[in-house]
């Protein structure tokens, strides 16, 4: 597979479009409360690329660091300082060859779902050994607002 492969995606109505180039840094499943609530499913499937590999068009709204289309509500990405998390279901081609290689928040996994074979299982967020930060690398805090590709920090009153 070529390292310059381009994958495109969008929200349900097509108002927000994006593309990523190359292979993702990692692919995972998350069973946390936030992912369950924002996806409306028992878990979310996502892939993470370097921010430099990401392009987007359209206006997004953001809540809790998660970007979605203000028209259709379709969840598309979470953009951090160095990485972008793309919801696998928002990619245009399905099924995709991307395969999750780890699971997060397995303490919230439904009993009828089986662990991914041979994939690391994290009780909570994965630990980023390089930065020493407990949690997904580059994921913005809930107090951050992403709009039109420009990050603005909201200051608490």
What does the model show?
The protein is mainly beta and 157 residues long. Helices cover 4% and strands 36% of the residues. It has one helix and 14 strands. It has one helix at residues 33-39, and strands at residues 6-10, 17-21, 26-30, 44-50, 54-57, 61-63, 66-68, 75-79, 83-87, 102-104, 127-128, 133-134, 144-147, 150-153. Strands 6-7-8-9-4-3-10 form a seven-stranded mixed sheet. A three-stranded antiparallel sheet has the order 1-2-5, with no helix packed on it. It is globular. 32% of the residues are buried.
The global form is globular
Strand content: 35-45%
Content-based structural category: mainly beta
**Unreliable residue runs:** 128-157
Brief summary:
This protein has 157 residues and is mainly beta. Helices cover 4% and strands 36% of the residues.
List the topology elements.
Elements: E1 6-10, E2 17-21, E3 26-30, H1 33-39, E4 44-50, E5 54-57, E6 61-63, E7 66-68, E8 75-79, E9 83-87, E10 102-104, E11 127-128, E12 133-134, E13 144-147, E14 150-153
Features:
7-stranded mixed sheet; 157 residues; disordered C terminus; mainly beta; 36% strand
